[in-house]
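Materials and Methods. Structural model of Excalibur calcium-binding domain-containing protein. The 72-residue sequence of Excalibur calcium-binding domain-containing protein from Rodentibacter pneumotropicus was retrieved and submitted for structure prediction as follows.
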Amino acid sequence: MKKFLLGILFFTLSYDALAYKVRARCADFATQAEAQQYMRQNDANYLDGDQDGEACECLPGGSKYGSSICRR
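The predicted structure was written out as tokens:
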């Protein structure tokens, strides 16, 4: 019975570790377009600091609005 409970505990802990996902940051991307695609596919609106629909505007490729708010 102890082995069974230890097995369940181990499985639960390892599953939680696999389920944890690190939030992406602007520094994780090479270009604004790459960050934009990630934001759209993963609902990562936190990459859009000024809420204008553009992710990581300080990266190469920049902003079509001329602003460059970006949290690296």
